[in-house]
Amino acid sequence: MQVTRRILLFGFSILVIANPALAQARRKVIIDQDASGPGGSNLQAIMTLVQSPQAETLGICIVTGDAWRDEELVHTLRLLEIVGRTDIPVLPGAQFPLMHTREEAVLEQQLYGKVNYMGAWDARWWHAPFEVPAERVPEGMPSTKPSGEDAAHFMVRMVQQYPHQVTIVAVGPMTDIALAIRLDHQFAELALELVFMGGALSAPTDAHEWETDPRHEFNFWFDPEAAHIVLTQHWAKVTCIPVDISIKTHFTRAMAEEIAKSGTPLGQYLLKYYVTFINYMWDELACAAWLDPGIITSERMYYMDVETQRGPNYGDTLAWPESDQPRFTGTPAHVLFDLNLEKFTQLFIDLMSAPTPNRKQ
Known about the structure:
By secondary structure, the protein is α/β, with parallel strands linked by helices. It has helices at residues 2-18, 20-24, 41-50, 69-83, 102-112, 151-161, 175-183, 187-190, 208-211, 218-222, 224-231, 243-246, 253-260, 265-272, 282-291, 341-353, and strands at 27-33, 55-62, 90-92, 166-170, 193-197, 238-241, 296-306, 317-321, 333-339. 48% of the residues are buried.
């Protein structure tokens, strides 16, 4: 069965490449990502869309979050070289949140208790913002360069060029998207939809990060003001992949080994840089749910916002059912809560195992 699925996927990829009419029908998407690496959820999410014959990746926007932007740019460019897709533009986004700073985050810990994970600001792997230490790039430095255009201007230009056709998949802090909104007040309305990984409502876990604050989630916490701007806009459609559903997924070493059997450069890369310390498929699930909504088995509608008042709950998720619409709000979000795990896992393995569409040798 797995072999049959891969043959079908490969055949469809070839059909799309060979048939311009099908290629034009692909769904346009911009990925906004905090692409720490090598390997791991962030880069695997990028490849979930790059590998899909359904998606036309217009560009990959890189924002500071799990790591500093400049380091993330290097990982992204190098991965695109490895898979032969250097034609996809990589856009430098925001290096810093709109208002939140590391100095404030350190003070918050002293006042309100330890923050379990601080991304680029975390003392366990801290380095200065504009440095890219060689030991952080084991896959080697890329020979390609990022675009000269910044992420926010690129996103605005794309939705203006393709009105109501471009999906924004936001799987990092929302700084770039907030900046795009400030550049063009029609940005949200011109986009086809927003899909984002972020927020937490009632995650079914006793993991330390959510033990005392079940509404905490890193992407919202890192730049709460940006998330507030984004969530209070009027989008045509919003889909939220929160912690609640993300932690039901795991990228196992067995999955990496299965993908590596394909013999593709991507398969070898995913196994070589398999991340052992945490394997939730946060961002891959967001991308896969957009590609195939049939993997989702439960969702509910909520108006969403983020706590921007400084204090112990700064950055926490705010949510109201549709019956309790707050006065100042944006579009209610389709919040995903459960999935067909087997179907999602197989979709991911099939995509990662297939030859990369439009690969340049």
